[in-house]
Design goal:
302 residues, alpha+beta, four-stranded antiparallel sheet, DNA-binding
Length: 302
DNA sequence: CTCGATCCCTGGACGC
DNA sequence: TGCGTCCAGGGATCGA
């Protein structure tokens, strides 16, 4: 489940591997997760990969203008462009030697000028790929929230402490913060000792700041360890991450809290499985019941 | 504004 | 062994 640290890991790997390469041709498999498949086939060949950036959970491949002969036409066809890639749940992107058998669920192959292929595989196709011009990229990036690694104390508080939504929902909301997913939301809430069902507006400034610092420390450590590999995350070199060994809440239902030995619980908050310590992360007042993961009717009082 | 429900999709886990 | 069912989850969308 690629979140900010995993996508950052992939971006760093790609930067090492494909920066400066030119795209010669495009081969597509299933395209139902690609915004405009024809645009990939027609607009990518001839462009050089000039930069690999991360924006929230998106990878952004900055592409040169089309070189050689082709002029930038009035509608901007040859102008610099970019390829936006979201890995969804199971997306992987990595260069392979041409001729190596295709992994199952390979849906995009970009033939590069060094003889390798940049391949995108995605079993569930929850990912997204889009060819974007300067204008459509700008539109795409509007509406994203703050970078959690850069956000200031003041901006974080102003985005969280005025909201009536649950803090778990706010952390997951890409228009509030960009890049946080289920794992790092739960980990940062555990570290900051905040229950996932608390409302943003009910957090004190001090708690919000504690959460911001916890989130930043966790994201930095996770990047240093090249992300969390839960089921199938692999970086651009095909290597798993290490941060899953440091999880304190996520995936630990029924196990003891590292701080207080209380059994970690799981409940559905903001529509997602949420792991928390019911002792360290006290439930907000008035929270009667939270749905449990199994069954629509099964409910439990906290 | 915020909520839950629904859909997308496949592989893995689990029950029988 | 094999089949059916449930479940994971990021994001879009829609109605309450």
């Amino acid at each position: 489940m690629p979140e900010l640290p995993e996508v950052e890991t992939v971006a760093r790997g790609l930067r090492q591997a494909i920066l400066g390469r030119r795209i010669l041709s495009v081969t597509l498999g299933k395209t139902d997760f690609i915004d405009d498949p024809a645009a990939l086939e027609q607009r990518l060949p001839g462009r050089q990969i000039e930069a690999v950036e991360r924006y929230g959970k998106f990878l952004l491949l900055r592409l040169s203008a089309v070189s050689g002969g082709t002029r930038v036409t009035a509608n901007g066809d040859g102008a610099p462009a970019s390829l936006l890639v979201h890995l969804g749940m199971t997306g992987q992107i990595a260069p392979s030697p041409t001729g190596q058998p295709l992994e199952k669920h390979t849906h995009v192959c970009l033939l590069l000028d060094d003889g390798r292929e940049l391949r995108y595989t995605d079993a569930r196709r929850f990912g997204r790929i889009a060819y974007l011009t300067r204008t459509s990229l700008a539109e795409e990036l509007m509406g994203f929230g703050a970078d959690p690694l850069e956000v200031s104390k003041e901006e974080f508080a102003s985005r969280i402490c005025v909201r009536r939504a649950r803090i778990k929902a706010l952390l997951l909301d890409q228009s509030t913060l960009r890049g946080v997913g289920n794992i790092y939301a739960d980990e940062s809430l555990w570290r900051a000792k905040i229950h996932p069902a608390r409302l943003g507006a009910n957090l004190s400034r001090k708690q919000a700041e504690k959460l911001r610092l916890a989130l930043q420390e966790i994201l930095r450590k996770a990047i240093a360890l090249r992300g969390s590999s839960i089921s199938d995350f692999l970086d651009a070199a095909g290597e798993p991450g290490e941060y899953q060994r440091h999880h304190r809440a996520y995936g630990r239902e029924g196990k003891k809290c590292y701080r207080c030995k209380t059994v970690i619980r799981r409940a559905i908050v903001a529509g997602r499985s949420s792991y928390f310590c019911p002792n360290c992360q006290p439930a907000p007042r008035g929270l009667g019941v939270l749905p449990l993961p199994l069954g629509r009717t099964a409910r439990k009082r906290y």
